[in-house]
Amino acid sequence: MFSPKKILVPTDYSTFSDKALTQALDIARQHEAKLYLLHVVGLVQQCVVDYCMDNATVADLDKKAVESAKEMMAEQIKRTGDTKGVEIISDVRKGTPYEEILNEEKAQKIDLIVIASHGKTGLVSYLMGSVAEKVSRGAKGPVLLVR
Fold it and tell me: What is the pTM for the complete model shown?
């Protein structure tokens, strides 16, 4: 029987991610698992067309983005409600979301990834690709997509 002990929940703080977190909490309670909550802050582009920001400005924007993400993560955990009995380890990283999620899976030896699917289809999905799709294709273990 499948009994995950380490569950990774990537979050973008959306209502979709709230649903994935709620599902993951239920699974974690049933299997006495640890829950890893991860948010990835995208990298700030220093130059766009003819305009470039100096290094200090980019560093300040990065710092503020990480601080804001940590505050939003605390709010999401609070919003989810009852987390009693489940150890939640939260982290905020900078990088490309799907790559950092897969890195976390490997580093923490995650048994299950519970990720929200925003349900994009057609041309938008084809052109942009979704983080959930890239994670499900690259993951070494099971992935639960929550719509």
Answer: 0.90
